Amino acid sequence: MTTVAPRGRAARAQGPGGAPTRGRARGWRIDRRYLPVVGTLVVLALILVVGGARYDNFLSVGVLANLFINNSFLIVLAVGMTFVILTGGIDLSVGAVLALSSVTAAYLLNAGLPAGVVVPLVVLIGSVIGLLIGAMVHVFEVQPFIATLAGMFFARGLCFLIAPESIPITDETFVALAGWDTWVAGQWRVTSSVVIALVVVAVAFYLLHYTQFGRTVYAIGGGEASARLMGLPVTRTKVLVYVISGTCAGLGGLLFAMFSRSGYSLTGVAMELDAIAAVVIGGTILTGGTGFVLGSVLGALVLGLIQTIITFEGTLSSWWTKIVIGGLLLVFVVLQRLLAVRRT
Amino acid sequence: MSATSPAPSRAPSSGRLGTVVRHHLFWPVAALVLLLAVNTVFRPSFLRVSILDGHLFGSPIDILRNCAPLMLVALGMTLVIATRGIDLSVGAVVAIAGAVALTYIARSPDPGSAGTALTAMGIALVLALALGTWNGFLVSVVGIQPIIATLILMTAGRGIAMLITQGQITTVTSAPFKTLGAGFWLGLPVATLVAFGVFALVAVLTRRTALGMLVEAVGINPSASRLAGVQARTIVWTVFALSGLFSGLAGLVLASNVMAADANNAGLFIELDAILAVVIGGTSLAGGKFSLSGTFVGVLIIATLSLTVTNLGISPLVTPLFKALVVAAVTLLQSPVMRRKLAERTRRVAPEPKVVAR
């Protein structure tokens, strides 16, 4: 707490490989790892209770179903971002890649290409940009912040090169795909984008918790040098997390195109901040090593709920959303910090 | 090339380090010269400076004037980055400072008086300093990582600016306030003089006193510097406060240039441009050694690049693409891997660059 130095050490020691402390306090340590996510759940519940008490119809199935529908792309972005942040990196390019992917989708569909070709192609664009960023970070040892910043500028510039103005999507197959929905239990409306988002969450959850790749991601976040000494494929994994984040951004762009039925170069400005905020509010620590995909999903839902509350309130102007999110970020970060201090 | 000449003198200590610093500046300056050359080829009159209405006029003067806000922000950013930090909130502080100053002027009974303009600037600068201090508090006392501590203000800041302007784009007419962003003094833009003046002041303060060395010590190894008796916490706190103050000044320059406070768009992405300028200038994001002359060149590159894109008749919206190419080129050329390869060829600078970069 005294200087900058112990802070770095304390944050490092939170990785899953914190062997020395494990014997000392195993039971409460496991508690502690889930604590930030529990905090997110409490906030989520609190917002629901306050909203339910203040407004009629707030706790209706329709509002909650719309929460998933309106935030499907943010959930996907946050999931991809979780992988990168878990390794201790950051991805600033996701907002711009999302825009590039949605603009490309609209442009190609307008040019007459079949949806069956366009859909995989735009997701692939995200993967390729992610691969380029990963290569920059790895082969050339450029800091993730700068490499993804370059990726962000690159993708945003390409957007304007492809189409400076908004392109509506009229392709029948694509519109049919975007408009597909089903009613779960007769009331809960689920659209195709929600299904895609949930599939992404499930795949990410499996990858992180049940594969060697997932364990390696956590290990790198806990201590890159140790992971390397353990013989883990550090380089491959660190490139892969950017590919995953890029792919998620590409997929997010697809979902956004489905959501808005158009492609516009200025979509997703500052959306990378929303994604990072969702991940942090979801309990993932920015130095890496600690965090959960499901936490990030909860974080994205919290952001969505704040938006919903402000819409319900009616008299509150939209800029309060930003202030509230900033305040919430502050609370979460300080709480994480306090937890880290108590531990050392 | 003239921009490089102060570099060796500002560089710390020995001749060998001096060589390394010049090596750092080689690629940025080459990029700047290349950009200027491209412009001159496409428009031979590009470098011509004439006197119009009693002040200098021409593309180089435009570059100098347009780069003023970025120069101020990048100056603070260099110091913050040197202590291993990063300040993402500068764009939000730019917006808040502009919003506060113009809202105060718009509500005052006498918007045209010099007193009103000065009071407005004073209030905005004090608030900006307070915001910077807040960031510094979160980083140095609470111990939150800089990137997330400043992310909080970056997210909330534009909301606060909107709150101040009530979501409107505030416009005012106040001749004294307009001087800061659009006026000329001794033939040069006031904005440029202010930015360069502050820059020179900080350069002298950091390089002619021990301050610069202390900042680098904190960036290279916080715990070692603390054990050596450096007040690491105070230094970190100070650089964040300064970054806020300079961003506030940049916000005033921007707002007075257009005489409007746009909470949504004022200083949008300026944090990224500033970080870019710092990195292009050869200061490592890992902290430690910093190069103010490098940042100076970096800012000029970005300002020239924006003007080049317009000059070539390309939509300014595509500018990010060119920025990406410049960043990629410069960072790749400066990357440890490439430097090792270059070092193999020019045996003079063997393993040193790697040591400096860490």
Automatic annotation (TrEMBL), chain A:
Organism superkingdom: Bacteria
InterPro entries per record: ABC_transp_permease
Membrane topology per record: Multi-pass membrane protein
UniProt keyword terms in alphabetical order: Cell membrane, Membrane, Transmembrane, Transmembrane helix
Presence of the UniProt keyword tRNA-binding in the record: no
Biased composition (Low complexity): 1-14
Region feature Disordered, mapped onto this chain: 1-24
Membrane spanning stretches: 34-55, 67-85, 92-109, 115-137, 144-163, 190-208, 239-259, 292-312, 318-339
Localization of this protein: Cell membrane
Entries under PANTHER family matching the protein: ABC TRANSPORTER PERMEASE PROTEIN YPHD-RELATED-RELATED, INNER MEMBRANE ABC TRANSPORTER PERMEASE PROTEIN YJFF
Name assigned to this protein: Sugar ABC transporter permease
Organismal lineage: Bacteria, Bacillati, Actinomycetota, Actinomycetes, Micrococcales
Automatic annotation (TrEMBL), chain B:
Membrane topology type: Multi-pass membrane protein
Chief place where the protein resides: membrane
UniProt xrefs under InterPro entries: ABC_transp_permease
Superkingdom of the source species: Bacteria
Subcellular location field: Cell membrane
Keyword Iron-sulfur set for record: no
Transmembrane region(s): 25-43, 63-81, 88-106, 112-131, 138-164, 184-205, 235-260, 266-287, 294-314, 320-338
Keyword annotations of the record: Cell membrane, Membrane, Transmembrane, Transmembrane helix
Protein name listed in UniProt: Sugar ABC transporter permease
Biological source species: Isoptericola cucumis
